Each structure stands twice: as structure tokens, then as C-alpha cells.
Amino acid sequence: MTAVKRADARKNIESIMDAATACLARDPDVSVAEIAKAAGVGRVTLYGHFESRATLVTQVVARAIQQSDEALGAVDLDGDPRAALRRLLEASWKLTQQYGALIVAAEQSMPHEQFQAIHVGLIDRWKPLMERGRSEGSFRDDQPLQWQLTLLQSVLHAASGAVYRGEIDAAEAAGLIDGTIQAALTAPE
Amino acid sequence: MTAVKRADARKNIESIMDAATACLARDPDVSVAEIAKAAGVGRVTLYGHFESRATLVTQVVARAIQQSDEALGAVDLDGDPRAALRRLLEASWKLTQQYGALIVAAEQSMPHEQFQAIHVGLIDRWKPLMERGRSEGSFRDDQPLQWQLTLLQSVLHAASGAVYRGEIDAAEAAGLIDGTIQAALTAPE
DNA sequence: GAGATAGTGAACGTCAATGTACAGGTTAAG
DNA sequence: CTTAACCTGTACATTGACGTTCACTATCTC
């Protein structure tokens, strides 16, 4: 009963998780074979470390969620809501670029409740700031909070797609996102 | 060589197209079996009328595109750009609800160029109004037009998802979409 | 250097979906 | 009423992905 795995095994597990993250971020339906190839590893090796495609996805998602949660938790949400929003958007944009469609893969491969729990956890990083901004009059509150949260996600996702298709430059995306969201959260007149 | 098909055959073809539209709008990956069941028809019958899944999707998409194009073409785009935008958004929202994820199915089942042609055709319904609104000062022009077009689609899609998940009411969606887009197209200050 | 640990490709069984073939039962249309 | 057109369920071949087994090789660790 070895307590720790061999060095090459650990390295391969890392490679697989990284490759799976990258692949799933692009296409939530990638085959295990492709992930293995991208990781520079035999398909059988992958199955030696992960019981099934589902468990691999689950673990990859778990890691991504953890890192995302840490990254968002490190953002300073105090002070002017608009400035805080900008900081939060910038951090979220980086995560969106990194993980892209991974969320879709998660939705398809995980039990619905588990996914819901994770998703809610991430959304809750946004909620307090949005609520504060609304009550302080920085953001419009003539629309449901839930809709505004959905909108945030949607715009980030849209930007990710636009960059992927080459419609906009990755460098200018952050500015566009911020400019768009800030405007969308401003009531007319 | 019968010139016209029998009445029940025509009726079944209709049922299949309708069912396929509804199913594909919800899930771009529905199986042929499910579509047939939804149409109240045997799977074999479906294959009697459509060579393959791909041709079925293509025909369904073609019909949807044609109806969409007609609906959008009927919208009055003259006068105040803001008012015209509201009319165009309302029409587009109806189409989005009807066809939902059908566009995704099209992307997966059709040759890329053909899809591109169709997509560009639909986008072009928006472009002139957006360009006019920008040059007349009604809409902000400090962001790429392409990004604003992407944003429009994204918001419509987001609303569709939100309604599906029960987050917002279908009745209020149109107002939210318009309120959001109008604000997003307004430059701050 | 020896042995446990890990990696490899090839082969296999399973499963779900696509598409086809067939043998009969229905029904529209003249 | 007759018949050709149509529908149906079952069965089958095919494909692609998943997951496992096996015999063998490579390499980490002590």
C-alpha cells in the first residue's frame, strides 16, 4: 500500500487534468481519446487514473471551481460599486477565457443538484456587490437581480465566443465587457 | 411517378418538421427516435421522408430561416432608431423563443460555409439599423459594430435560457431585453 | 541492479444512435 | 372496391465512444 504515487504517475495525472481542462473548455463533448492524446498519454493510462469520463470531468470541474472561487475571492469588492464591478469583471473575464465551455461539460456530466450547488456558489460571489450597488443607487434596480446576473454571465460568454471566432481581439475584450455591462446597469434618463 | 404525395404523407411530413423544430430548439442533439416519437410517427416513416438526420436538420433550418427572414423583413425599421430597435427586438424575441437552440443544431449538422451564409443573411437584417443609429448619434459608436451585434444575439439567447429555467417570466422578457439593450447601446455620461 | 509501479497498444465487449431491409397491416384515391 | 401508396414494428448492419483485459515494456524507487 504505497502512500504516495510515483513521480511520473503524478506528472501524468497533472497533464491529463490540464489537457482535459483545455479540451473541455473548447468542446464540452471531446472524447476521452482526444483528451489522452492532448495529454501525450495512452487512453488506457487515463483510465488507470480516472474511473470514467464522468469522474474526470467532475475532478477537472472541481479544480476549476476551486481556483475560480479563490480568484474571485481575492477581488476587492469594497468602495465604489462601479469600480468594484470593473475589478470583478476583469477577474471573471480571465476565468471565462481559461475555462470557457467547461461549465457546459459540467452541466452534462454531473448530477443536476451537484451542478446547481456549484453554480450557485459562484453566482454568490456576485450577488452581494450587485445588491449593494442597487441599493446605493449605482446600478439600476428596475430589473430583477436574477436577470442582471444572467446578463453578466451571458456577456462574458459572448465575449469568449467572439474572441474565439476572431471577431474581436482578446486584448480589447475586457474593455468592451466593462463598457457594455456598466452601460447595461445604468437606467435610461 | 406521382406528382403529389398522398394526403397522410404530407401531413406526416408536416408533423415531423414541426416536432423536429420543437425538439431541436430545446436540444440540438436530440435523436431521430425522439423526434419521430414527438411527431407521433414511426422512426422508419421518418427515414422514408428524409434521407438522413442531416437532411432533416437542413430542411428544418431552411424553413426556420425563411420564416425568420420574412418576419424580420416585415418589421418597420424607419423613424427613430430607438423605436425601430424596439420593434426589431420584439420580433427577434419571438423567433428566439420559437427556434431557440436550432441554430446550434444547424452549426453542427451543416457544412460550415452554408451555415455562415445563412447566419450572415440574418445578421444583415440588423446591420443597417445599427449603422444608421450609430451615425445619427442614437447609439454609441465607441465599440465595434460586430461586438454590438454579438451582444444582441447573446442577450436574446440569455433571455431564452432564463425563461426556460423559470428565472424570469416569458411575458416580462421582452421588456427586459429592450431595457437592457437600449441601455447597453447608450454611452455613459 | 532488482522489483514494484506505471505505461503502452491492441483487442474485446457494450451501448446508443444511425440507417436499411423486410413482411405485413392501413388508408387515401380513383 | 381495388390497388398503389403509405405506415408500422422488428430485426439487422454499422459506426463511434466508453470501459476493460492482456501481454509486454519502461522507469521510478530503494
Kindly summarize this structure in a few lines.
Two copies of one chain form a homodimer. Chain A is mostly helical and 189 residues long.
Proportion of helical residues of chain A: over 70%
CATH class call of the largest domain in chain A: Mainly Alpha
CATH topology of the largest domain in chain A: Tetracycline Repressor, domain 2
Cα end-to-end separation of chain A:
70 Å
What is the strand content of chain A? under 5%
Structural class of chain A: mainly alpha
Largest sheet of chain A: none
Q: What is the C-alpha radius of gyration of chain A, as a whole number of Å?
A: 19 Å
The arrangement of helices and strands of chain A along the chain is HHHHHHHHHH
Instruction: Tell me the greatest interface.
Output: A-B, 27 and 27 residues
In total, the number of domains of chain A comes to 2
Counted beta strands of chain A: 0
Shape of chain A: elongated
The average pLDDT score of chain A comes to 96
Q: What are the segments of chain A in which pLDDT stays under 50 over at least 5 consecutive residues?
A: none
Oligomer status: homodimer
CATH architecture of the largest domain in chain A: Orthogonal Bundle
Number of helices of chain A: 10
Pfam families (chains A, B): TetR_N
Protein name (chains A, B): AcrR family transcriptional regulator
Domain HTH tetR-type (chains A, B): 10-68
GO molecular function, one term (chains A, B): DNA-binding transcription factor activity
